[in-house]
Amino acid sequence: MNARTNTLTDTQFRIHPATRPGLVDLAVADLDRQVSFYQTVLGFKLHERTETSARLGAGGADFLRLTLQPGGRRYRGTTGLYHFAVLFPNRRELALAIARLFSIRYPNYPTDHILTKTTYLDDPEGNGIELYAESPEDGTWEFENGEYVTRRSDGTPSDGREPLDVEALFRLLKPDDRLDAPVPPETRLGHIHLHVANLQSAVHFYHDVIGFDIMGMAPAFRMAFVSAGGYHHHIGLNTWAGEGAPPPPAGSLGLRYFTIRFPDRPALDAVLERVKGSQIPVETIEEGYLLRDPSQNGVVLTV
Question: Among 3.40.980.10, 3.10.180.10, 3.60.15.10, 3.30.450.20, what is the CATH number of 20-302?
């Protein structure tokens, strides 16, 4: 499951290796429609519903919260969510998810990253989503001299963005499979990918302050990956919305925040101490400790 990298950097402080993304909270204009989409199109389970919010996941911990934002608008060319990525436990479960999309003709874009198999889509309000499964037996990727390089298991190169062989994936399905079944309980938030205003300042925040390892930077491609415990990436960062992109106005639709979930309180406190030592404002909310990265993306530290 791990990517290889030539740019993994040690610091005096490293985040606990069991740290993971927890959930993503999205501000939405039409809560009923969004809940219906995530239940019927993606098979998420509804854990809790109120008049103004909904929590969804796979039956265990929530990995998606939808919060009603009356009158909210979506803005382009700003920082915020590029996509959130839902990790399935294996290729067969991903095949079921993609077959479900195909059966209702929902637009999606199956892609072979070699290290992972994936498809991309947007929800009805334009939030980017990735559905993926790990496939390290097929190859890996790494960063070489600031370039993103992918190689298949036989050593041949790939651009890492090949069309997915959907027919081969669908051979994992059985005739009696139900395409309307909920996602399996092992499904979780695998990573989150953000639009940022400046790559260097974002990497400084997530690496030097929070303590994630730098898994690679590709300045020419205007992206960087950071993670805990050697995973290929828990957080993707890019400036594809434009260098110096502004944050969306208050009350906008889209990302409210995502959570970084620590395995225990001491691991959280170690990072919280560094955040406060860096003079970064912290607000205590129900979910945990809310702060903002240099691009004003909301980040919540929690256990």
Answer: 3.10.180.10
